[in-house]
Amino acid sequence: MRAFTYTQATDASAALHAALQNPEAKYIGGGTNLVDLMREEVERPNEVIDINALPFSQIEVLPDGGVRLGALARNSHTANHPLVRQRYPVLAQAMLSAASPQLRNLATNAGNLLQRTRCYYFYDTTAPCNKRQPGSGCAAIHGVNRIHAILGTSEQCIATHPSDMAVALAALEAVVQVQGANGTRRIAMEEFHRLPGDHPEQDTTLGRDELITSIDLPALPSTANSLYFKVRERPSFAFALVSVAAVLELEGEQIKNVRLALGGVAHKPWRARTAEEALLGKPATAENFRQAAEAELQTAIAYEHNAFKIELAKRTIVRALLTLAERQLLA
Amino acid sequence: MSFSIDQILRGDIPRVERPPAADPSLVPVRLRVNGQDHDLQLEPRVSLLDALREFIGLTGTKKGCNQGACGACTVLVEGERVNSCLTFAIMHQGKDITTIEGLGTPDALHPLQAAFIEHDGYQCGYCTPGQICSAVAMLKEVEHGDASHVTSDLMATDVQLTDEEIRERMSGNVCRCGAYLGIVDSIRAVYEQQKGQ
């Protein structure tokens, strides 16, 4: 690991100032991903700015009935907060399905969104990787790509975003609150992470001169029913091969409102708008769910080892929606 | 350095630490471990794990994978379990850090230490300090009503610590000897003992 100087920021403007002064500096929150990346020399900051003393750890109700998740609240505290457990089960489930209890105790909410891909070639500094070293190529496209993306890929990069939390936030239409040198702005979850395109080195639309202060969850109708369904190689402490965050609201047997986001399939949480549009106003049946899933995955591209993800994603969508529909029809 | 596909599929990728820089800039770091203050001179890049083992001499905490995957390095910071390998020591000044040495002694074992002996909760013992620190915090989380991925009712605050719950909640601690049956037995025994009190 490269040696670095350690700076402790006491407020947001000091943190922003320190980062603006040194383009090689990195913020550290929980560090669960950054420390590992530094040890592997994928990240080589010469300064680490500790932002843990900043006042962004609260979880509170917003005036519009939504809930604000502080950027520095820990994943474990967020998942177990009564407001999250009661109002946003999809988020609690997604966060509790991620990593291990020890990691969730360190990991922050903002850091969860900013974690890097777990593509093996991104981690292997001897392999070409356009995300780590723009222009060097992509070892995954013709390499071992079982865990890689099937939607929204480019010739530059087929990495996936590893977060579970972000998938639930996409389905919930969360808003990322950001503070920069020139004030604050709001970024819709769908706009926060990027598709790789020609710039896979950019995971998000967050500027270098910006800090996340909170993630805001809009109020959901009390009738909304939600869940997170995660498929992985083992039932605990593993990244998703495919996951589905789903929110469903029925009126009788008709679908009044549906939100779907997929994890493990793209460079960002994949909001399944095509499937949502196909389902609105339709009866909540397995056949309609399957048709919507087919429509969503129509643009999917398989690589040598990940073709299974296309069918798996379809089936996971159907399973998640059927579970929610049955639950609501029985209630 | 290159790896074969077989190595990658097995996860058998050697992880190499580069030698430290020639001119380390040391900074004073005060850590409170098991109730005792330690004034150290450390490079900021020293992990909490290395500070405990190499600079304070508390070698009960183990280095397994050094990447947050195995849990052998689990310690308690302000009573919460964390991977000490994935955090810098300098970030934990002013906090109460508890290691296996602070939980019990050979003459006065912590109930979980005694239970691991009674129920064969280990074979080689390398993962055991991490398992025990993790279990201590896990039982507090259960008492606090925290849910896990296998908790079926997120609204319920009264957690029933089934074996399935124990396994899920301990999944951050790997045992390569495979002593899981004994580990689950040990934790269940202490849980039932505490519940009975």
UniProtKB/TrEMBL annotation, chain A:
The record, for InterPro entries, names: CO_DH_flav_C (IPR005107), CO_DH_flav_C_dom_sf (IPR036683), Diverse_Substr_Oxidored (IPR051312), FAD-bd_PCMH (IPR016166), FAD-bd_PCMH-like_sf (IPR036318), FAD-bd_PCMH_sub1 (IPR016167), FAD-bd_PCMH_sub2 (IPR016169), Mopterin_DH_FAD-bd (IPR002346)
Q: What is this protein called?
A: FAD-binding molybdopterin dehydrogenase
UniProt entry tagged with the keyword Transferase = no
Q: Which UniProt keywords apply?
A: FAD, Flavoprotein
Recite the lineage of the species. Bacteria, Pseudomonadati, Bacteroidota, Cytophagia, Cytophagales
Pfam families to which the protein is assigned, alphabetical? CO_deh_flav_C (PF03450), FAD_binding_5 (PF00941)
The FAD-binding PCMH-type domain covers which part of the protein?
Answer: 1-222
The molecular function terms of the Gene Ontology recorded here are: FAD binding; oxidoreductase activity
Q: Which SMART domains match?
A: CO_deh_flav_C
Superkingdom of the organism of origin: Bacteria
Positions the record marks as coiled coil are none
UniProtKB/TrEMBL annotation, chain B:
The question of whether Flavoprotein is a record keyword is answered with no
* Record InterPro entries: 2Fe-2S-bd (IPR002888), 2Fe-2S-bd_dom_sf (IPR036884), 2Fe-2S_ferredoxin-like_sf (IPR036010), 2Fe-2S_ferredoxin-type (IPR001041), 2Fe2S_fd_BS (IPR006058), Aldehyde_Oxdr_Iron-Sulfur (IPR052914), Beta-grasp_dom_sf (IPR012675)
Domain (2Fe-2S ferredoxin-type) ranges? 27-103
Identify the keywords attached in UniProt to this record, alphabetized: 2Fe-2S, Iron, Iron-sulfur, Metal-binding, Oxidoreductase
Q: Which GO terms describe its molecular function?
A: 2 iron, 2 sulfur cluster binding; metal ion binding; oxidoreductase activity, acting on the aldehyde or oxo group of donors
Is Iron one of the keywords? Answer: yes
**Coiled-coil regions in this chain?**
none
Superkingdom per UniProt: Bacteria
Q: Where are the transmembrane segments?
A: none
GO cellular component labels = periplasmic space
Q: What is the protein's name according to its record?
A: 2Fe-2S ferredoxin-type domain-containing protein
